[in-house]
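Hello,

Our lab assistant flagged a job as stuck in the queue for most of the afternoon. It eventually completed. Since we weren't sure the result was trustworthy after the delay, we are filing this so someone can double-check. Below is the sequence as submitted and the structure that was eventually returned. Let us know if re-running is recommended.
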Amino acid sequence: MQVALRHPNSGSFKFIDTGWSWPIFLGAGFFGLPLFFRGMAFWGTAMLILWFLQLAVPLAAGGDADTLGWTLSFAVLGLCVFLGARGNALSARHFLACGYEFAYPDSQEARLASESWGLEI
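-- returned structure --
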């Protein structure tokens, strides 16, 4: 289910899904790009740092870093799962903090989304 958010000054709309975020889950491992596109620079930077460490540390440590490489891979996977589960809620909170409002605050979609995201209308 999609929820429309509207910025009162510019009139621009953002449409955010509720529930699982497949674009973030599948794309966050690629430099954290979907996170930066949604304005979540902190999470994008965290994913970018983990991605860099996942590649650089085993190369720098040589062949003895198998355990560290697997640990970093599981950390990236765990963060992708977390962001897949909470990514839409984090995006909605970001846009609401930037001044966006529910386009239709009396709709059933807005009520269900606010409950799902832990917000009050």
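-- support follow-up --
The delay was a queue issue, not a problem with the job. The result is valid. Residues 54 and 71 are 9 Å apart (CA to CA). The chain has one domain: 2-117.
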